[in-house]
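Hey all, quick one. A colleague (J.T.) asked me to put the SAJ job into the tracker so the inputs and the C-alpha cells live in one place instead of scattered across chat threads. No bug as far as I know, just bookkeeping. Sequence used:
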Amino acid sequence: MRLCVMGLGYIGLPTAVMFAKHGVQVHGVDVNEKVVNMLNNKELHIEEPGLPEMLAEVIDAGQFTVSTKPEKADAFIIAVPTPVNPDGSANVDYVRSATEMILPYIEKGNLVILESTVPPKTVENVMIPILEKSGLVIGEELYISHSPERVLPGKLFEELVSNDRIVGGINEKSSELTVQLYKRFVKGTIHKTDATTAEMVKLMENTYRDINIAFANELARIAEKLNFDVWEAIELANYHPRVNIHKPGPGVGGHCIAVDPYFIIEKAPEQSKLITLARSINSNTPKTVVKTIQNIVKEIEEPKIAVLGLAFKGNIDDMRESPSLEIIEELKKAGFKLSIHDPHVKADVEGKVDTVEEAAKDADLLVILTDHSAYKDLDFAAIKKVMKSPIVYDTRNLLDQEKVEQAGLHYLKIGS
Ligand code: SAJ
C-alpha cells in the first residue's frame, strides 16, 4: 500500500507518520522547501508530543519519504490549510492547487481523500471538476471522499487512534475504501456518510464549541457586572447531567474554532444568525481583556505589563489566531511597556524574554493569557520580589489563588 500525503503541517505530518508506522509506504509532500529539508534531517517545524521519536523511526525504517513533489500511490490524502479571505470567506486555493498537483500522478483505481476543513460542497464543486481532468470515471475508476480531521493539537496521536472518524464518500465504494485505509490505526468507530454531510459535521462540531464558549464569555461579563464568580457558577451548573458549559477566557484562537463558523456563515448568511453573533462575542473578547487591564493599572504611572502566554491554548506552540497577539498589539498601541514570555513558542516575538522572572522584573501587572501547565507551579515568592506592583490577572483561572496570595501577590481573575 502506497500513500501520498499532501501538506505536512499540524495534521498532514502526524497522519503521514501514523500510516508509515502501520505498514503503509508513505510519501509526504510540502510546497515549503525549508520544511521538506528539515523533515529529511529529522527536524520538526511543529511541536507535538511523541512526533520527534515517531518521525525518526519511520524515516530510519524507510517507510516515510518527503519531498516537494507528489509520487504515484494507491491513495492520496490532502491535508492543506484553508485560510480565511479578508471578507471572511474560505480560501480553498490550497485545496485546489494540491488537487491539481496530484493530477499527473493519478491512476485507475486510486482513492483521493480530503482531510482539510472546507465549506460544504467543496468536494463536489472544487475537487471533482479538477479530478475529472484525469479522464477517469469519477466514482468508478477514481474514488473520492472527505474525512475531516478532528484531533486536538497536543493530544494528537492519542486522538488519531481513539476518536471516532467521519468518512463521507462521493459513493459507497469511495467510503468503503476510505474506511479500510483508516482502519489500519483508528480504534474508534468509523461512520460512513456522504461528502457534503461530512463537510458540515466537521464545521458543526467546531461551531458548537464556539457558540458554547461565547455563552461562557458572556456569562463572565455578567459575573463581572453582578459580582459573582463565573467559574464556580459554571462548575455548579455542569453538575447537572445535561449541562456542559465551556470555559470563558481571553478569546478563542487556533485555526479551527475561530475560523470554521465563517465557512457555514459564508454559504448561508441569512440562516446563521446565532453563529454570527457568537463569533462576534468571541472575537471582541480580547478587547474586553485589554479594557480590564487598562482599568487595573489606571492609577499606576507608566505601567509595565508582563504577558505570560502567546500560544492560543496551553502546552502547544501554535499562535494562529491567538487572542494573545491581539491583546499584545492593543496594549502596545495604548502605550504600555511590555515583556512577554512563552515556554513553548520558539518564534521571534518583539519583547519576548526567556524566563518568567525576567518578564516579571519591574512589572506592575502579570497577566496569564495561556493555560500552559508550566505556569501553574511558578515560584510566586520570587516573582513578587522582582515585580514593581504585585498584581496578577489570570484570564484562564489557571493559578491556585491561595498559593499566589500566600506569596503576597494580589490575585484577580476574569469573570469574577
Ligand atoms: N477555549 C475556551 N474555552 C473553552 C475551550 C476552549 O476559551 O472552554 C479556547 C481555547 O483556549 C482556544 C480555542 O478556544 O483558544 C480553541 O481551542 P480548543 O481546544 O477548543 O480547540 P482546537 O482549536 O485546538 O481544536 C478544535 C477541536 N474541535 C473540537 O473540540 C470540537 C479539535 O477536535 C479539532 O480537530 C480542531 O478544532 C480542528 O482542527 O478543527
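Adding what we noticed when we looked at it: Residues 96 and 126 are 7 Å apart (CA to CA). The chain has three domains: 2-188, 203-279, 284-413.
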